[in-house]
Give the backbone structure.
Amino acid sequence: MNMKSFALLLAAALLPAAARADGERLRPATANPSYQQECGGCHLAYPPALLPAASWQRITADLGKHYGSDASLDPATTQTLTRWLLLNAGSGKRAREAPPQDRITRAAWFQRKHDELPASVWQRPAIKSPANCAACHTGAEQGDFSEHRVRVPR
Amino acid sequence: MRSKTWHLVFIALLALALASGTAGATTPAEQLAALSAQAGTAGDPARGQRLFTSKHGAEWSCSSCHGALPTQAGRHASTGKPIAPLAPAFNPERFGDAAKSEKWFRRNCKDVLGRECSAGEKADVLAWLITLKP
């Protein structure tokens, strides 16, 4: 292999990691219409990189008891979505360990990022829950969690 | 009685023919006809509204997420995500695919009633939703 093709290969290998490293731009759920449709009905179809593979594995193995709701799917759809989630699961420093109850909102990085917000903010009617990313992150559906696009509703 | 039975059989066959010809795509009226045929009785809007807005021993009613009058957007009771209107006259995407309707009835009835809904209960709810007009 010559030097040029090696450099290209290296760049290609590093690019996805670099794109994810700042954590602001994530592969959005819209990249997979089936995921968007099946998981985005009740909550934002969370970017798969926000949880490690072990968490996705546990979540998709028990969709009939999904955080208090029945979110079960037919076996074929479950299998396809599980494969996609595992393939795109988080791999950076945020995904080193599974958060308690496999909840994104319980992850140490999530709590650190939101530690300036008092509990009363989460309870505002337009927000209601830390799971409601899109209430404040206006680009959440597109995988854009940049601080520039945060608008906290009154 | 006899003519009513034949009437239902006819509706069921019609619904089946329409559904099989268009690979899952149906209209709310066709889905109601199919559910009524399956239940052996026509959907009752008043009964549907009662089922929809009442709690059934669990924490949520259908209205907890869809609103008491699902002609406008609701909000998911635990995640806060906005949920588009459920009444088909206010949201053309609703009840256009029988498999999708069945999937959501199955999951949401388990959350609200702790069991799947019968064809009659589904017919009642859909009959009520269809009566909601702008």
Summary: Residues 43 and 124 of chain B are 4 Å apart (CA to CA).
